[in-house]
Records
---
Amino acid sequence: MGLLSERSLKLELSTSRIEALTDGVFAIAMTLLVLNFDITEPKGDITHEKLVDALHSLWPYFSHYVQSFIILAVFWTKHHQQFHFIRRSDRTLLWINLGFLLFVCLIPFSTSVVGDYGGLRISALLFELNMLLAGSFFWFHWRYATHEHRLVDKELKPEIIRAYSHFMLVVPAFSIAAIALSIFHPRWGTNIYFLIPFAVYFLRR
């Protein structure tokens, strides 16, 4: 029985179910972001001007929707790229991935809060802390899989591992900067996430 348990613990697991679950979670999280849009029906007769004003009031929600969608897109793209190299899984990687998805699922909520109360420090910090924790789990996911080539091919070059480690640190690094800025100006802190696509492009080059 002890021998069987030991063998079970060392059993290599397929990555396909991790990828399937992750794709589903990202699809739902990206879709839920749009539910933050809710036009308040103008009082009295609806006119062109009133509708324009109602749409204009949605600008903070649209801004944070774009930010969160970009971040989720970066996470999903890099997760897909990670599993181009990760050949197998184990229980620890499963739980690290679930920890990552825990904070991915929270992004629509923190996006809604910062959309409603973007000028308040606590709402900005909630959003940025959410991104920091998601990004940290994501980085740890790659580090665990590649440490001593644990779950990747032995032939995978160290420079590739280092390059992708730098990619995985983009969101945590921006989140730390955003948290520091939000202490003084919450809106500046959250707006820094618009620079993420440029940082990813620069690192790719």
---
Amino acid sequence: MSGIVGSKLNIRGSGLVGSLGTDGQHLLSAGAGKTNVFETAAGGGKVNQVVQTVMNGTTSGNNSSFTDISGMTCDITPSASDSKILISVSAIWSGNASYSINIRWVRDSTVIFAGTSAGSRPLGFFGYQGVEARGCQQIGPAEYLDSPNTTSAVTYHLEWRNQCCSNTHYLGRTYNDNNGTEYDVRAASSITLMEILA
């Protein structure tokens, strides 16, 4: 085989290449015994940008209505209106064993990734009853592919509420938060946003 760039594509056994692809194209096999072809790479499904918020500290809440979780907010500006946003959340909560906590995702002012309405039940992506051992924490990881349909900046944030405002719940720490014990860990939480091109 000479490796010479010639006038015909795929002269079998000769190593001749008849043409070159343009920028962004790939040389692909068309099958056994057939001429190879240049084709443009698919554009969909590519990650265009990634942004992240990490909450290393702790925060608390004691509201019976949904309110923002301090530090758990992340902004992104999609480059195209048909892009999707893959949201990943990892968060650590704790609370009193006597009360429940509800958590939901919100895009700007719109609740997303929530259950179906059923009576007076709260809607969200995560909820739990506080654990009896107050050194314990609950982890709430989740992913959701959202379609904001905009090229304007959007804000994703977590909100929480409890069964009764007399109960305090926490992010990033245990309920007791005792110093010098191996089980009262301080933990980080995060929100990661990835723009997925159409």
---
Amino acid sequence: MSALFPDAQNSLAFPVSLSEKYRPRTLAGFVGLEKQKKVLSAFAKRPCSCAWLLHGGSGLGKTSMALALAEEMRAELHLIPSQKCNLEAIESVRRMCQYAPMYGKNWHEVLVDEIDSASPAAQLSLLSKLDATDPAPMTVWVFTSNNCDKLEKRFLSRCRVMEFSNYGLRSDLAEFLAEVWKAETGKEGTLDWTRIAKDANSNVREALQALDIELLAA
């Protein structure tokens, strides 16, 4: 594990992509996203039962930040993957959250990826679970979404909505790519980091995938 990248996973046991190796495991480890890091870090120190909606384009760190939040909250994680959020999944995880968290954890975190692809029945079932009608104790719901067009207004009104954007991220991403290159090769790179960040539309995951190719060509 690199001292420069304390979040980076040790890849000696098996090869992994750069996007996985350098996926942040702590809130402080994200590139840019200063407001999002500040808000969720403060929340992790004083959590309460509520729901968050993290929305914005793909590759900006919404899911990774939700996972990092669970770590910093010491929360037992319940993941409902994209395309799997149906009525049965919601009811099942709600029952699990009725009990005390396991593994020495203090909270439950229910992470629902791409809630905008959830079935209408699942969205409706969430309404009572996100307010005082049928709340799960010591539970934080975190939903990710690429856009809010398909989401019920009643659902949105029950969430703390935080937008993820790549605005202003390019220079931070270019600097990050240069640091990754040096960490991987031990040398200063001569690539145009700003161009790579621009071509990836400041999408961190896409930029790291482009860097994977450059490393193979080096």
---
Amino acid sequence: MEIIKQGISIDKPDGTHVDYFIFPEYEIHYNELQPRTIQQWHHHNVIEETIFVISGKIEIHWQVDKILFSEQVSNGDVIRVENTPHTLMNNTDCCAKFIVFRFVPTGKDNRELIKNDKHLDII
């Protein structure tokens, strides 16, 4: 077991604070998107991102086949970004907080393994 109390902390020029926790096969980011902040449009060629909103409201914009979409998400919502070009905006007066899980998918369906790989221990 490993307990990590602090990641690589970065304050980006766009108003986003990020704590990066980088592991050999995946990465976790804790993000704080300040009020009235817009991130740059971006995408990843290989990495897939999944975003879990902890608090606040975020407007996500994305593009598919040159068509723009947007939706507001809030605490408890999950966004599976995949490799889609996207940007996040906080159009509120409160800080929005979310966690990003980044990984390189292998194409293998591991849902059954993930759901059932729990073994009870007697200590």
